[in-house]
Amino acid sequence: MFRIKIAILGPSRSGKTCISNFLANEVEQFGGEYRQTKGVRVLEFESPYVNIDGKNINSEIEMWDCSGGMKFKQFWPVFLYKADGYIFVYDSSNVNEVKELELFLEYFIDKQDIEWINCMIFDNKKGKTKKNGRKLPEKYSQIKQVTVNAEDDLKKMKDQFKDFLSSILGRMWDMKDQDDYMLPK
Ligand SMILES: Nc1nc2c(ncn2[C@@H]2O[C@H](COP(=O)(O)OP(=O)(O)OP(=O)(O)O)[C@@H](O)[C@H]2O)c(=O)[nH]1
Ligand SMILES: [Mg+2]
Question: InterPro entries per the record (predicted)?
């Protein structure tokens, strides 16, 4: 079985904890009052099966629901450490969230050796508005970006997450002889 660390990153109040709880099957419905994540919460769960090379593969996921508060910036190297995938969450109709997301992307993508293929972005339009507050710089256009409203698009988020896992697992499968990726027996 593979072991995967996924970091959920992005501005405070963008919806990371709501989305993490749902993807980790901690909740079936959306909701709850806002409580700031202090530092990080790690959710552990088994992934859905994905089909790779005709085989059904599953994995154990550590989902790191990271705080978006800038006072926790000192922890960013810990969020980054040995992560296999990065999911960024922001609301493109909120200019402040776009500016903050750019700080995350600058740190996690520009300054590190992270491949854009291991990243995806949920544009969580909380206000149900279709307008764009500010566009992300062109250099990030290779990262897959999916527009959702976390409250309504539960199935879409799970499907997109499964696709994202498949692509990460597919690359791990190709390197499976490297024991680091496997859980100890
Ligand atoms: N209406 C609506 N509210 C949302 C949506 N996504 C998140 N929220 C609300 O926005 C608030 C913040 O959500 P969280 O998931 O706690 O935000 P976070 O990104 O984890 O924030 P930090 O822990 O501070 O980094 C909560 O009150 C959520 O209920 C959405 O799609 N629609
Ligand atoms: Mg949170």
Answer: P-loop_NTPase
Instruction: Compute the distance between CA of residue 131 and CA of residue 92 in angstroms, rounded to an integer.
Output: 8
Residue 154: name the closest of 43, 42, 26, 28 by CA: 28
pLDDT digits (tens, 9 = 90+) for 47-88: 888 888 888 888 999 999 999 999 999 999 999 999 999 999
Q: Is residue 155 part of a domain?
A: yes
Supply the CATH number for residue 111's domain.
3.40.50.300
Query: Cβ contacts of residue 82 below 8 Å, gap of 6+?
Result: 5
DSSP string, 64-131: EEE---GGGGGGHHHHHTT-SEEEEEE-TT-HHHHHHHHHHHIIIIISS---GGGEEEEEE-TT----
Q: Residue 4: inside a domain, yes or no?
A: no
* 181 belongs to a structural domain: no
Q: List ligand 1's pocket residues with C-beta within 6 A.
A: 12-18, 32, 34, 36-37, 67-69, 124, 126, 149-151
CA 150 to ligand 2 center in whole angstroms = 14
